[in-house]
Amino acid sequence: MFPKKNISKTTCNYCGLGCGVIIQKDNPGKITVTGDQDHPVNKGILCSKGVTLQSKVSDHSDRILYPEMRWNRNMPRQRVTWDTALNRAAAVFKTFISKYGPDSVGFYVSGQCLTEEYYLIDKLVKGFLGTNNIDSNTLICGESEFTANKLVFGMDSIPGSIEDLELADCFFITNANPFRSNPILFKRLERYKASNPEVKIIIADSRRTESCAIADIHLQLKPGTEIILFRAIGRFLIENNLIDKEFIEFRTEGFNEYKNKAMEKSLEEASAICDIPVIDIILAAEYIGKAKSFISMLPAGNNQNSTDLNKNLSLINLSLITGQIGKEGCGPFPLSDQPHIITGTEAGGLSDSLPGHRSIINQEHREEIAKYWGVPSISDKRGYTDTELFDNLLSGKLKAIWIINTNPLVSLPPARNIEVALKNSKFVIVQDISLKSETVPFADLILPAAGWLEKEGTITNPGRRISLAHKLTNAPGEAIPGISIISRFAEKMGFADPFKYENPSDIFLEYSRITKQTIFDVSNINFELLHQNRSMQWPFEPSGKSTKILYSDHIFNTASCKANFHSVAKGHLPYELNQNYPLLLTSGQTQDHWHSFSSTGKLVKVNLHTDKPLLEINKEDALNRGIKNGDVVEVFNEAGSVKVTAQYSLDIKKGVVFLPLQWGKVLIKDLDSISVPMHSQDDQMGVKTGFSVVQ
Ligand code: SF4
């Protein structure tokens, strides 16, 4: 529980970085939030979302205050008691499970959940309901990054630390504009570069964004050609002996195959495909090859398109050939935005995972967890992934879905399918804090959840740093913490005893013990230690000391203990533009806003930066089509069309247009095709696009 004093330290949970904040509460209960100078992540600075954190707890204008339910879809929802709400939820879930089997129900959860919530839901679903149909929205933001790390290093955690930012002498940022999407990390990088001008920053992006102000070279490549660029850089490094031969020979596997792939195209061919000068590819390669320590950034912009995994694997290959792993200032580094992006595999919560980086398909893992939870067995069938949950809702296989702290109608592609799927479902439960979520109107049952500072638990950032989030104030209305909702529902389902906990620290204790002797062993920490240390970075030494760098002995978690090169077959996206669809559409983050607006949309300060979506278009492309600055244009592709105001830009590559992702439902998502997810920050997914001027 939060200390009984007026000033306390906790963690911002807007985005995944987990900045340290100081909360001051004056007598009338007014809350002030400032950055914590002593926190290793943000060192006192906060982004514009962070500085408005107090409105998260003081402005209840959009909060869900009590449970609401409708008895059928022709009736309006009405306020009900928690007992009525959870009795109904249990009755519906019991009916479907007994009639159609456990796989007829599913849970779609979120990085906004605390670790203890994640763990508890996972335990209920996989251990007691008998299905693995649970998945998280973190899959949208980071799955391909984590999968790439797992394939290469044998574990889906980043090898380095956020502290490495000030230790590298070369950075390679692709498909991201951290100035907007990761402002605190960008600020740190900007300061570091200012005092160390010899540090090299390479940015590859089809837009010249604000981040390019600190770049030594901007590779304004054609969207979808990143893998060709990474291979061309690899080829130059190999041909010019700028590689770490000893590391490659003794600590990796698959180099020859990678080398063959890298040699397939000459630098000139790569230059033509990527539409960037050869000299720029060489310069970028020299920066990387001559760097003593090199960091490649893995952004969400690499993660959300049809070749996302291949892009990340190709990028990590550059760290492998240069031996830039296992020491300070090295390795792939996440530029993720979603909180708790890694907790799916740490605490369970994904369709194929079990707590402690265990896997559903591993019999030994299932048996260990079943024994620990005191259940006969855990299903060996992988559950539905995020999009599969809604596909199966659409087909009728899945009857009921419980959506927790996420707004799939905006954030999960394709929007039209999600809407039809929700309408097609038999029962939808939405557990959330905000009535503004576009998913709420589709709910048969709404459950009010406690939010930031209204519940206690832990958060893990992408740098493996576990922090405590404190309870400072009571939730408004009848909102309660997620762990209470799940425990009470479990009781209604007939599983009271396994879900009886005194407080969140007991859940953490149970969860941490389950990780003992796994690759993710956090069994020697507890809330008390976290209170003392503010935050801790796993893995921990027996003394509890944090580990900053993984693989410093160059022993990896793969079967061979070596890191794996992956020479992906797919080189670039086969965009075939034509007269009808002559341009490539990319998407990205708007300054300061958070995903679907349900959190940041109500903040006046943040809204001042932008109040409507604009289509960025190269001025020459616009003039060629008779589009004037400020014209409303119709943007269309094979999947749909939207009307939006055009804005000339000299900073976007000719042939490419850009739409912000926050207006997802009305903009980007309506242009999305089923096979190509397109919700990201600076996502270079490149949908073929056409135009007509509306007014
Ligand atoms: Fe909060 Fe993220 Fe901003 Fe830090 S960068 S203050 S964690 S929103």
UniProtKB/TrEMBL annotation:
Q: Does the keyword Iron apply?
A: yes
* Organism of provenance: Sporocytophaga myxococcoides
Which biological process annotations from GO are given for this protein? Answer: cellular respiration
Q: Which cofactor does it need?
A: FAD
Instruction: State the covered range within the intact protein.
Output: 1 to 695 of 1119
Q: Which residues form the 4Fe-4S Mo/W bis-MGD-type domain?
A: 5-61
Q: Does the keyword Iron-sulfur apply?
A: yes
Protein name per Swiss-Prot or TrEMBL? Nitrate reductase, nitrite reductase (NAD(P)H)
Alphabetical keyword list: 4Fe-4S, FAD, Flavoprotein, Iron, Iron-sulfur, Metal-binding, Oxidoreductase
Q: Name one GO cellular component term.
A: membrane
> What terms describe the molecular function in GO for this protein?
4 iron, 4 sulfur cluster binding; metal ion binding; molybdopterin cofactor binding; oxidoreductase activity
